[in-house]
Amino acid sequence: MNYQLHYDRLISRARGRILSGYHEKHHVVPRCMGGSNSKDNIVNLTAEEHYVAHQLLVKLYPEIGGLAVAAYFMAKKGANNKDYAWLRRRYVAFSSQFLRGNTHTLGKKLRPRSAEHTLKISKALTGNKHSEAWNKNNAAAQMGKTISQETKTKMSLSKMGNTNTKGKKLSDEHRAKLSLALLGNKRGVGRIFSIEHRAKLSAARKRRSKEVSRASVLKSWSTRRSHKMTVEAVI
Asked: Is the pTM of this model over 0.85?
């Protein structure tokens, strides 16, 4: 089959055509192959045509991984072009009904927030604290969870690029609030331990530290001793 001929005919039929019903935008030269978002490189296709177009592209360029990925996700939504089109139309209709009446962003273009807008939001949220019930539920949900080393590394890397607090010193008042919020508290809920309790915790940590150190020394000594005995036996 001449896949290129069928693809060219499909694109040629779509150029200059006006579709009144549901349709999807298609890049004639896919973006994974260097295609741009210019008007000349975009045509409107019906859902059925869009599905077929991507199947043809995979046939034409089987070595391009991005085309296979796009076709794969389209195929997951439908076994063929008719199934895909039916599901896409149902999804759009459902989304339209679900969002009907939501005028929050009606007529607004999504764009990056300006510095002034960000400052207004910051001021509006200042002092906005969660309720005590929310704090308890959140603490209970987080209790017992451990962070993997991979996640810790990602968090560290993300903070390295955060310049919001770079070079800034915390005020004494801020430090005092942080100290009170975190003092003796595993989840930062704000509970403060007494001086006696803190002394017990400190003594327990020191005792555990000594025990761990002693165990580490014994393990190291046993390993060296075992290795020495093995070498002597071989010699």
From this structure: no
